[in-house]
Amino acid sequence: MSRVHRQLLYGWLGLLALVAIEFGASILPLPRGLRPALMLPALAMVAVVGVAFMRAKRGPSIVRVFAFAGLFWLTILLGLGMMDPLTRAVYTVQSTELP
Amino acid sequence: MAEEIAPHLHFQYADTGHQEETAIAGMWLFLATEVLFFGGLLLGWMVSRHWQQAGFDAGGRETVLWIGTTNLVVLITSSFVYSAGLGFIEADQPRRLVQCCAVTIGLGTIFLALKLYEWHIDLSEHLFPAGPFKLHGSEADGARLFWSFYFVATGLHALHLTVGLGVLCWVIREARKGAYSAAWHTPVEVVGLYWSFVDIVWIVLYPMIYLVGRGT
After folding, report:
1. pTM of the predicted model, to two decimals?
2. What is the pLDDT of residue B94?
3. For residue A95, is it within any domain?
4. How many domains does chain B have?
5. Of A84, A99, B80, B106, which residue is least crowded by CB atoms under 10 Å?
6. Total domains present in chain A
7. What integer is the mean pLDDT of B103-118?
């Protein structure tokens, strides 16, 4: 087996291990607010696919600029989009009957 | 002495290396736009779940976990097999590349077949958000939001995957004609980037659809 294929095999096995971790963690009785933490193994998987299968570290440097730009603007999108839901104080208002 | 020109080299590039770098960078730029395209979906999921957690999670508990998990493993494996094919063409083994592409297409087809079966189960259980709905009571509105997200997200992903299958068939056709070699195989590499991105989208969607809502 060539060095390239051996590295790909390690990447694939690492991904399967992360799937097992993610699936196993989902069985834990996490509180509702902490459940999105189940996305963390998925983020690690994205990194493995990017490095092992998409060769993000090997290509021309402009590739990493585009990859970083995509993630940067995604952060802006999600950050600004969630700004209001995460900072809004919700007050209960008593219902009033119209005359 | 006449200068030898590579057969695939377009006039605007200095050499094949320059052409290859440009093609790969172009695909990465396209994928960056795709990140923002799917980012809107991700934001929709975050906002909807934030305001209607109980209903949203109740909707998530109705998904078919075994199909989602199987599809995740299938798609990860397909990316691995295609990348192995790229490794083979770099070692000047076009026949192995064709074999890897065929296996990748087979795995992609299995994914689509399972997805169609899953949609069939979802629809037969009245989980389509516009119509008579399975869940009732205070959780129904949030659950309908979840299932709206589910059908849009999985539909868009399946569309991307179908495009990927078409492009893979094209790679096989060209490889069988002897178009690729160790010296020139840029399209194989560019298609691999797209296929791995389709894999990444499912990797991100999987916990959002199948895991976060469970266990609450």
Report:
1. 0.92
2. 93
3. no
4. 1
5. A99
6. 1
7. 98
Does residue A1 have a pLDDT over 50?
A: yes
Distances (CA, A) of B59 to A19, A34, B97, B211: 22, 18, 42, 11
Residue of A32, A38, A53 lying closest to B57 (CB–CB): A32
* A9 inside domain: yes
pLDDT at B187: 94
Is the CB of B196 less than 8 angstroms away from the CB of A49? Answer: yes
Task: Give A64-68 contacts, CB < 8 A, sequence gap 24+.
Answer: A66/B25, A66/B28, A66/B29, A66/B31, A66/B32, A67/B28, A67/B31, A67/B32
User: Domain for residue B12, yes or no?
Assistant: no
Enumerate residues 47 to 106 of chain B having a beta carbon within 8 A of any beta carbon in chain A. 47, 49-51, 53-54, 57, 69, 72-73, 76-77, 79-80, 82-84, 87, 90-91
Task: Tell me the pLDDT tens digit for each residue of B159-173.
Answer: 999 999 999 999 999
What CATH number should be reported for the domain holding residue B34? 1.20.120.80
Q: Compute φ and ψ for B137, nearest 5 degrees.
A: 85, -155
**In this structure, is residue B132 part of a structural domain?**
yes
Domain, as residue range, for B71: 22-211
Is residue A7 a contact partner of residue B87, using CB atoms and an 8 Å limit?
no
CB contact under 8 A, B215 and A4: no
Q: Is residue B81 part of a domain?
A: yes
Determine the residue of chain A that is closest to B42 in CA distance.
Answer: A78
Range of the structural domain that residue A57 is part of = 3-82
Residue B22 reports pLDDT greater than 60: yes
Q: Is residue A51 part of a domain?
A: yes
In a domain, A47, yes or no: yes
Cβ distance of B215 and A73 shorter than 8 Å: no
What residues of chain A lie within 8 A of the CB of B72, using their CB? 19
Interface test with B, best of A10, A13, A32, A57 (most B CBs within 10 A): A32
